[in-house]
Amino acid sequence: MAELILVLSQEEIETAVANLAEKISADYHRREPVFIGVLKGAFVFLADLIRHLSIDVKVDFVGLASYGNNRSSSGKVRLTKELEIDIENKDVLIVEDIVDSGLSLTYLVDYLSAFKPRTVRICTMIDKRERRETDIRIDYAVHVTDKGFLVGYGLDHAEVYRNLPAIYDLK
Ligand code: IMP
Ligand code: MG
Question: What is residue 151's DSSP assignment?
Fold first, then answer.
């Protein structure tokens, strides 16, 4: 039987996401950034984050797949949905659910650079560091952890648990 150990409660997430939105609003004051959510996992975080902003933003999504049904990266990243908004000369903020090996983000930053954005920064709900394989720089993170396999608040295991309002370690 799978066991779920609480990592971040719904209340802790709400407070942390609101605080982060305030910081991002200050950092991007008068810049009308484009937030790019990485499907599928980031849709819950992105939806909460943008509703706490005090600046104008544009929102788009890209789809990335690397995991299949396993708990570690296959190492091969695949684009499952293309960018639609024009980001040339724009300030882009990538919004991720969790950064693990960093391979997905390295792939995505490379993909986006072809569209000539002005700046690209990275915001993630969870920064999970133990298995990092690239030296990608994370600009904003709600929660930093070493290891574990986290589910809930958009994060899945084999497509299940995305709907949970809190974040858990799946044992
Ligand atoms: P990376 O390419 O290894 O950094 O993996 C990034 C993607 O793998 C994330 O966007 C998630 O979709 C998935 N992933 C990595 N670790 C976890 C986890 O602990 N729980 C759920 N999904 C994860
Ligand atoms: Mg993801």
Answer: E
